[in-house]
């Protein structure tokens, strides 16, 4: 099944200024041993879109994000980001593509040996060659944005899970990515900390033109931020629709079952 | 058997010189084993097996043969190949090489204990490989490797008397020299025994302080 997030029936204009296709997957298959997690998937995401991937565990959602971040390779098929092929590609090109993509992980993955501020400045300084004071000024702005301006010098391990995840979001944004990949970013959080992180992401979705691909089990959040929701099952997209459609009147019985189980 | 404080006094000038040689061998041997072990570990992670294979065979060989045999080999065989080192330099090289095959395993375990998510975060931020190692992986591995490395330092200390066999005048070398001159064995051997305990204990104290610093 082919999914085009550019086809809209709600007449809502694409967010942001940069239009056109940014991400394209064609015939992507991924197997782990005998288990096929993605089965000939086609997917296209336009710049500025917010796409949410839902579905049962093991249906390949996270694998898509990991492939876009080049953390894992597809067994078959092609992946293109901003016109650049990813697999196979020379290391130098891959690095250029990676710079356009930021990722936030379920387990935060902050660097525990660095202060919060250096977690955020390390990549802009070392990868983008930004002067240190500029990177720090920007990191402070981002920490302000995520509500942690007073935690600059703290070690990540001293922060709560929710605070760590907000730092991780600031760290990803510091690279000014065109695409933000959000991999179950609230799944590891205590329930009372989830709302703060989701509110922050809602803000970012509203106020920037960043393209978002989001794997989540938070259906309320998916409804709020998405232009398009993709329902995965057994390595395929079985239904793709705007949130107002898929959450109130899904076409497929499998989608209905899944939603009634999680809502 | 009678304890003779006079014999202790006779031994002391020699003892201090011996202690200095022992500490020198220990310090240099440790540094070589720390540095070389890290080199082995990193080489074992190179993608081509034409690098990994010879390194693996060499280090396995060194680890599985006795240090004493290696010292003899370095001391008697290297000169035949035109390499002549002083006894102390040979001894330091031998101990450093031998223990590097152990420290490499410590490093490997320390590196593997860094969660895979750290590598993934570094990739997601496009950090270059050398920066990922220097800024992310090694600083986290080091606090896990300090305790086992410290144990090897103490183990190395207890192996330094082997250097006597290739003519290094360490503590044991000096004690034997003096003992044979005066036919008094009890006092010099007791003195160096106490010295080994004191140095081991001080080393373990130092180690614990270092550990506490790093864990913070």
UniProtKB/TrEMBL annotation, chain A:
One cellular-component annotation, GO: plasma membrane
Domain ABC transporter residue range list: 23-259
Pfam families: ABC_tran
Protein localization: Cell membrane
Main location: membrane
GO MF annotation terms: ABC-type amino acid transporter activity; ATP binding; ATP hydrolysis activity
Region Disordered, annotated ranges: 1-20
Record has Methyltransferase as a keyword: no
UniProt record similarity statement: Belongs to the ABC transporter superfamily.
Descriptive protein name: L-cystine ABC transporter ATP-binding protein YecC
TrEMBL record, chain B:
GO biological process, one term: amino acid transport
GO molecular function: transmembrane transporter activity
Span of domain ABC transmembrane type-1: 19-207
Location in the cell: Cell membrane
Transmembrane segments annotated in the record for this chain: 20-43, 189-207
Keywords: Amino-acid transport, Cell membrane, Membrane, Transmembrane, Transmembrane helix, Transport
Membrane topology of this protein: Multi-pass membrane protein
Matching NCBIfam families: ectoine_ehuD (TIGR03003), HEQRo_perm_3TM (TIGR01726)
Family affiliation: Belongs to the binding-protein-dependent transport system permease family.
Record-given protein name: Ectoine/hydroxyectoine ABC transporter permease subunit EhuD
Organism: Streptomyces lucensis JCM 4490
Lineage start: Bacteria, Bacillati, Actinomycetota, Actinomycetes, Kitasatosporales
